[in-house]
Amino acid sequence: MGKCLKSLSNLLSLSLIIGRANQIDDVGYQRLGDALKSFQKITSFTFSVQNDNLLNSESLKFICEGVETMTNLTSLSINIEANIIYTEGAQHIGNCLKKLKNLNNLTIQILHGNCISSSGAEALAEGIQTLVNLENLQICLQTNYIGVVGAQNLGQAIKNLKKLKYFFLKLNGENQIEEDGAIGLSQGLKKLEELRNLSLNIGLNNQIKTEGFLKICKSFESMEKLQSLNLFIAKKNIIGQEGAIQLGKSLKQLYTSLSSLQLTLKDVEIGFEGMEGLMDGLKSLKQLTYFIFY
Prior knowledge:
38% helix; 10-stranded parallel β-sheet
């Protein structure tokens, strides 16, 4: 495949999707990485590795060395399913991102089994914060144990993205960001004043608690141009009635802009007063044309 790709040097867009259980070894990934260095004109690249392909940190290094030469890239998507990249693999991605100053569209999806940890999340954040032209950012980290520090670093990174219009963040499974991690994220979110579309999914076992949720809700109030909000909070993130009341208050501040709202609050114990406070905020959204509540 590497030799074939090298002959296609005029490509402007490439999607490289490696299906399940192909078990490409390090030599194979090295050849792919070398081939990617041929694409100096390319503006859009997708790299997707499905389950059981033996992609490790060294293999990913070869791919990233190829991608970082694509200095004309405006759109990049990296999808790594259940493989074994660990912290070092995430560091290679972060270093690669620092070379791609023209990106305005970035998707990073690293699923369970890769275990990038807080250090890996920090490396990704360091790369992301240099991408000041980003308008669309999607991050999905499933069961990667990024912890409090990882979430705080992501919050710090997005502070710099003043042009961001669409932000999707999914932290499901075991990431354990806890209250302080949620607060760190909120500090970044409140700086995204140009945001039009926000999707925030905080899944099981993140334990953000009431104070973390309060801060996240308050961050919405600075998003005066927000048109679409999708908020998913799963069980074991007990937000309490105080959290639900604050969500209602924050929604009130979006009454002139918000047209689409999807709320999923699963087993988070908001109580009767919390529901009343939430409903009080919802009824003020006169521009709303699309609403789903689970």
